[in-house]
Write a structure and sequence with these properties.
about 200 residues; alpha+beta; seven-stranded antiparallel beta sheet
């Protein structure tokens, strides 16, 4: 009987542990992730639209039907950090050389947003960073949309809603579903299809 009481007490404590783990998980890093990301992009959209004549740009995503123009989820919001000396922008089929860092929205553990991918470490320094070579047509729609408006040398921070990023799926790089993607981009150069791209 004594052992039965001890065993019952052990089961009860184990059950409490499981319940508290579930509650902690629910209140964890990605709790209410879809709602939080939707609210975040709405707040960015409000700021961007109010400052389009200043250092913000707002672009309807490449290939989006005009009937969806009312939805914040189908626009890319771009804050111009600095302007380069270029006057032309890459096309959808071009290859780009770009320095970049990708982050999620700010959270308790990562107040600046968790970094999920980057082509450089530390602070951006276009003089020393070795840019990545990417085919624009192979990038997420939000990234492609922004880059087709950038000029050589530009540095932008872009906000890509989930619908123009990885959407509802779990990305191989660990990006949770429904994530807004935040990229710091520096367009170094671009090359039209058929043009030789120099090796880095």
């Amino acid at each position: 009987m004594k052992y039965l009481k001890i065993y019952s007490l052990f089961l009860f404590v184990a059950f409490l542990g499981l319940v508290s783990c579930d509650e902690t998980e629910e209140a964890g890093e990605y709790a209410n992730w879809s709602v939080r990301n939707s609210k975040y992009i709405d707040s960015i959209a409000e700021v961007a639209r109010a400052n389009e004549s200043g250092d913000w740009r707002v672009y309807l995503a490449y290939g989006i039907n005009d009937t969806l123009q009312w939805d914040n989820q189908y626009y890319v919001y771009c804050k111009v950090i600095s302007q380069g000396n270029g006057t032309e922008s890459p096309s959808y089929s071009d290859t780009v050389l770009v320095n970049y860092r990708g982050r999620l929205i700010p959270s308790k553990t990562y107040p600046d947003g968790a970094i999920f991918d980057e082509s450089y470490l530390g602070q951006l320094d276009p003089e020393v960073n070795v840019p990545s070579k990417l085919n624009l047509s192979g990038c997420v729609r939000g990234w492609t949309t922004a880059m087709t408006h950038m000029a050589k040398g530009d540095v932008w921070r872009i906000y890509v809603p989930a619908a123009l990023g990885c959407g509802e799926r779990q990305d191989v790089s660990g990006i949770p579903p429904y994530s807004t993607l935040i990229f710091d981009l520096n367009l170094v150069n671009f090359y039209p299809i058929g043009t030789p791209v120099p090796n880095n």
